[in-house]
Amino acid sequence: MHFHTTKVSVAKVAAHRSIADARTPLEEWCFRHNMIADREAVAANFRRDAQFWHLHSSHVNALQYVDFLNEHVRRVLLLISQEVVRENDSAATPNVLDQPSDMSLPLPSWTGLSPLLLPEKAKRWYGDHLVRLILSWFWDVLYTSVEPMVWASHLQLYADFMGSTGHPGPVKLNGWKDGALVPSLALHGFTYRLVGSLNSLKNAFAIQDKQLCTM
């Protein structure tokens, strides 16, 4: 900014810079006098009198008291909102005794496992080791099972896979990678969800109860 036909100019100065870093005479002048201003500001803080610190303490106490009141008001409003939601849910919820006890879809007939083959497309995506690991887990659970059929979600399958093998499965990180080989995997923030390799197992819509019991 310039005032009075360039007699006064205002320059932005980077804080806490050494004079040795200056590249021009103007920067050297700015860095030097900025250091002087910083020292004077510190000295001014040390020279504050008791009246200032009394005012400062009173201001801090007033802010803390306002925060205390605001917190109690927020809690009361939250409790009121929760109570209103509970009352609305109670009024809108039908009598559960009137609902059928079994709302699941009909289960298909269990026809046994298909021949054990390594899907070539899955091997190209996830690697031979991961495909073999997933298929070994899947076939080991179901090959000899005689339990009745039940519905299961992909998340249940993934949870059982991790619990049974201790392996995180493949993760998509610039392409599919073996999760066990990714350094600091937990720090990447992957969400808990079905990974692609389990989904490639024909989207198993129904599995036997024994599979869920292996978690």
Keyphrases for this structure?
6 strands, 3 domains, single chain, 7 helices, mainly alpha, two-stranded antiparallel sheet, disordered C terminus, elongated, 215 residues
Structure description:
The chain is mainly α. It has 3 domains: 2-46, no CATH class; 61-91; 120-212, no CATH class. The protein contains 7 helices and 6 strands; from the N terminus they run ββααααβαββαβα. The strands form 3 sheets. The chain has a two-stranded antiparallel ribbon with strand order 1-2. α3 (120-126) crosses α4. The protein is elongated and about 90 Å long. The termini are far apart.
Mean pLDDT: 75
Total of helices: 7
Query: Gap between N and C termini, in Å?
Result: 70 Å
Strand order of the largest sheet: 1-2
Tell me what portion of residues adopts beta-strand conformation: 5-15%
What is the strand tally?
6
Q: How many discrete domains? A: 3
Radius of gyration: 34 Å
Structural class: mainly alpha
The major sheet is characterized as:
2 strands, antiparallel
Shape: elongated
- Compressed to H and E, one letter per element, the order equals EEHHHHEHEEHEH
Share of helix, binned:
40-55%
Low-confidence stretches: 194-215
Brief summary:
The protein has 215 residues and is mainly α. It has helices at 25-46, 50-92, 120-126, 128-142, 154-165, 196-199, 209-212, and strands spanning 2-3, 8-9, 149-151, 170-172, 176-178, 206-208.
